[in-house]
Structure formats: structure tokens, C-alpha cells
Amino acid sequence: MSEWTVDTLKEHFDALREDDQEAIAAALAAAKEAVIKAEVASEKRFEGINEFRGALNDVVSRNVTRNEWSSSHEALIEKITELQRRADKNEGRGSGLSSAGAIAVGAIGVIGTIAFIIDIIIKLKP
User: Fold this and answer.
1) Domain spans of the chain?
2) Is the pLDDT of residue 1 over 60?
């Protein structure tokens, strides 16, 4: 006959159940620890992502938009065009003044020569 009795079977199943419960408790503790580690790693990853996102937002906020650049560029082009127009106008005025100055010097020279000739003629008359 078999050595199993109701009492020995009960003891055997109770021992198996206790072993199973210990294994389940150990598995649950390990799973809980793994979840905590995963949460910590996830937190660190999200902190890094948030830092990167913040840095990217800082860069984007400091950069000029296309519309801002276009309007500033247009204003600079207008100022350069105005300065070029003024420079051209001043060059024309300068050449006009140079011509007027040359004419004035020539006229003074002619008047001086005529005055000198008249002075000589007056001195030669007895």
C-alpha cells in the first residue's frame, strides 16, 4: 500500500502551498523593485528630455523669425538705397562746386591779368 494518508497529503499540500506563497511573494517583491527601478529610470529620461526641450525652446525663442528678418532686411535695404542716393547727389554737387571753383579761379586770374596790364599801361604813360 501507499504511504500517503489524508494527514500526510494535507501536510504535503500545505508545504507546497507555503512554498508557492513564498515564491509568489518573492516574485511580487522583485516585480515591485523592478517597477520602482523602471520608474526612476523613466523619470531620469524624462528629465533629460525636458532639459533638451527647454534648451530647444530657448534657442527657438532667441532666433529671429522669417517675418522679423524680412522686415528688418527691407528696412536696411531702404536705408542703403537712401544713403546711395545721397552719396550720388553729393558727388554731383561736389563736381558742380569743383567746376564753379575752377571758373572762379580762372575769372580771378583773368581779372588779375587785366588789372596787371592796365597797371603797366598806366605806368608807361608819361
Assistant:
1) 6-92
2) no
